[in-house]
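S.,

As promised, the adenosine-5'-diphosphate run. Input:
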Amino acid sequence: MRRAICPGSFDPVTMGHLDIFERASLMFDELIVSVFHNPTKDRAMFTMEERVAMLEKATAHIPNVRVTAFSGLLNEYCKQQNTHFIVRGLRAFSDFEYEFQRALLIKKIDHDLETVFIMTNAKYSFLSSSGIRELAAFDGNITGLVPESIEETIRHHAINKY
Ligand code: ADP
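Predicted complex:
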């Protein structure tokens, strides 16, 4: 079975992420979308559990997607899940340097791991989780920018938090 992991913070999941999941799900038998605890991004808006719940809702229509959460080293998690493929989305040049370093670092740690990049859909190229967090915090319109099934959850959460 050809299985891949798509790791990220997904704080929260956006239409840009969902587009990557949909396209990657056609390339692999199973796609594991995994919320990674990233200690360098500790000012999260949503808990790991909330992010997993939103991802489950947003990906319910993709039968070969499984949502998990993980904290630790990505190469160890890939081994545990029996996969050699990591899927990442690429937006602009600004993503490239970070992703390039990350992909080479993981290759250095484990030569069997391949990072596969999927180019953003042009209509979501400007979209980021941090942009959504900012918009939602000030009650801005997030319709069409996040999956419809979780729009209300995000709006409600942001209004109560700020
Ligand atoms: P991380 O904290 O690991 O960067 P993110 O949740 O911000 O996690 O993003 C996860 C992945 O999705 C990254 O590869 C990122 O480049 C990609 N991504 C984020 N937004 C978009 C978008 N609008 N279009 C395509 N890929 C995206």
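The first strand starts at residue 3 and ends at 8. The chain has a mean pLDDT of 94.

- D.
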